[in-house]
Amino acid sequence: MPDVAKVKNVGLRGVTVADTKISHVDGENGILIYRGFQIEDLARSSSFEETAYLLLYDALPNGPQLEEFKGRLARARRVPAFIFESIRKLPEKAHPMDILQASISLIATDDPDLESETREANIAKGIKLIARMPALVAGWDRIRKGREPLPPDNTLSHAGNFLWQLTGEQPDAELTRDLDTALLLHADHSFNASTFACREVVSTRAHMYAGVAAGVGALSGSLHGGANAQVMKMLLGLREVEDIAGWVKTQLDSGQKIMGMGHAVYKTTDPRARFLKDMCFTLGRKFGQEHWCRLSGQIEEIAVAEFVKRGKTSIKPNVDFYSAPVYHIMGIPLDLMTPVFAIARVAGWTAHIIEEKFGDAQGKPALYRPSSEYVGNYCGKTGCMYTPIEARQ
Ligand SMILES: CC(C)(COP(=O)(O)OP(=O)(O)OC[C@H]1O[C@@H](n2cnc3c(N)ncnc32)[C@H](O)[C@@H]1OP(=O)(O)O)[C@@H](O)C(=O)NCCC(=O)NCCS
Q1: Alpha-carbon span 210 to 101, nearest angstrom
Q2: Is the dihedral of CA 157, 161, 167, 169 positive or negative?
Q3: pLDDT grade, residue 60 (50/70/90)?
Q4: Whole-angstrom Cα distance, residue 75 to residue 169?
Q5: Which of the residues 141, 178, 320, 360 is marked catalytic?
Q6: pTM of this structure
Q7: What is the pLDDT of residues 99-140, one digit of tens each?
Q8: What is the pLDDT at residue 369?
Q9: Ligand 1: centre distance to CA 173 (Å)
Q10: Beta-bridge partners for 317
Q11: Is 315 a pocket residue for ligand 1 (Cβ < 6 Å)?
């Protein structure tokens, strides 16, 4: 056992728990890289499918490799009928993240290779999850609205097919390209809470579906992926409000958060937020909904200035601050915003699960087992004593 410094760090901030070759966040300088590539380069030139390949295989594909990968993704899109039949029985008010989490366990029950832990079997599971999660999100939205889930259109890209399965309309080319870029920007983010959850679960040698289901659960919280829906709620609540500065002050004076701002790692503007802000204005102009982007910009300006006044100079917009108005303009319902985050992040989750299972970055897989400091009672010291139930007051 190597020497380990005895440290206690509630929340594990800044504690390095593993090596990874998948992505890196430089929070001081606002830099995000996937497999060595700057996010800005990928967002300008790559596609979600190509980026998913890069994350999974640690190399950019050549032309035939990319075509083959896209073909595998497209062929894996179809969700087995028993899954839709099962979720059809669930309450229509159920949160789509809960439905998604449950459906991932259902996909596991149908995998003939569930027990196989070869690298190729894990890549095949990853492809199945990346391909099917959009179909599950879209299918559930249709089921709860009393419509039938639509079959995939394999002539469409990953992003385009999601829009088609959600709306039943041929997707607009520009909108498809922007959704593709948004998915790419959300595809990975080093050891965030949901990725850590995935890696922690599979470090026990649980299968990939168990890991991804845990990731969906972790992502659903409002301090993580759930923040995008909270941002949209905030924008909807503020659209008639004139005194935004007054609202920001009241919010902060009463100890409330401004959703979509601040980050555990970034101490400057999240590079993804810059991209999404520009996308918001471009899409907003095209669809006559620029007012959402102007409102977001106004809140950003006022809130950042107010944080500075309060000595908090590093609270800036994060990825969720502008993804919310972008998704709203794209017509994505508020409670599907976090599931849309999940259908992007599954590319990173599956790559991290494979890295964890095969010890790709640090040589040897290891079971996560942190310690805690016990601060509860100790009968020897505090005098508590076990008494039979009949003798208790
Ligand atoms: C993401 C988040 C949890 C990271 O924060 P963190 O590094 O853990 O820092 P803390 O939550 O401890 O915040 C440090 C201080 O800044 C304040 N702060 C951080 N983000 C804030 C926000 N969005 N609004 C208001 N205050 C905020 C905290 O209240 C805290 O103040 P205090 O020291 O007076 O108690 C936090 O910024 C947050 O809750 N943001 C809103 C939710 C969100 O957008 N999540 C998505 C993240 S991608």
Answers
A1: 10
A2: positive
A3: very high
A4: 21
A5: 320
A6: 0.95
A7: 999 999 999 999 999 999 999 999 999 999 999 999 999 999
A8: 92
A9: 37
A10: 261
A11: yes
CB 280 within 8 A of CB 296: yes
Task: Clarify whether 186 is annotated catalytic.
Answer: no
319 lines ligand 1 (CB under 6 A): yes
Q: What is the dihedral of CA 41, 174, 298, 228, to 10 degrees?
A: -80
Q: What is the mean pLDDT of residues 59-64?
A: 98
Is 24 a known active-site residue? no
d(CA 384, CA 194) in angstroms, rounded, equals 39
The size of the chain, in residues, is 393
CA 317 from centroid of its chain's CA atoms: 17
DSSP per position, 180-214: HHHHHHTS--SS-HHHHHHHHHHTTT--HHHHHHH
pLDDT tens figures, 135-150: 999 999 999 999 999 9
Residue type present at position 28: E
Distance 258 CA to ligand 1 centre (A): 8
Going by C-alpha positions, the residue among 78, 103, 66 that lies closest to residue 161 is: 78
Any atom of ligand 1 within 6 Å of the Cβ of 257: yes
Contact at 8 Å (CB) between 158 and 180?
Answer: yes
The side-by-side arrangement of strands in the sheet containing 23-26 is 23-26, 31-34, 37-38
Q: Tell which atom from ligand 1 comes closest to the C-alpha of 256.
A: 25
**Shortest-distance Cα residue to atom 27 of ligand 1:** 257
Instruction: Round to whole Å and give the CA distance between 326 and 345.
Output: 17
Å from CA of 228 to ligand 1 middle? 15
Contact 67, 53 (CB under 8 A): no
Instruction: Give the Cβ contact number of residue 249 at 10 Å.
Output: 16
The active-site residue out of 224, 328, 352, 360 is: 224
Ligand 1 atom at minimal distance to the Cα of residue 318: 48
Question: Which of 257, 296, 299, 309 is the pocket-test mutation for ligand 1 (most atoms within 8 Å of CB)?
Answer: 257
- Please pick, among 263, 270, 328, 360, the residue that the annotation labels catalytic: 263
CA-nearest of 46, 62, 283, 63 to 180 is 46
DSSP character string of 269-319? --HHHHHHHHHHHHHHHHTT-HHHHHHHHHHHHHHHHHHHHTT-TT--B-H
